[in-house]
Design goal:
Length: 106
Amino acid sequence: YAFEPQAEDMKAIFGPPKNYPNMQIPNFVTTGAPFALLLHGKEDTIVGRFNTERLKKALKENDVPVTVHYYDGMDHVAPIAEFSWVKKKKSALLKDIDDFLKKPKD
């Protein structure tokens, strides 16, 4: 995540403001970090797409291999729901994870 809290309850959890950089994952990316797979539902209204973009940017700036996928019709919880035993059909998200894990890493 790369946001700054706006709601008062979130400010209380993550504050004071001088501590906000400590909760922003892109601030902790370093060269040599493991390769990354970022998955984001396009309908997610809880975590903004900008969070994924900022993390992707930080990874690339540190020469960390990163793969990013965005999914139509998925909100914040839908990617996790894809792992449910109720799902009968293998989704694009699960295929992307499988492909990522099988892809040779340099």
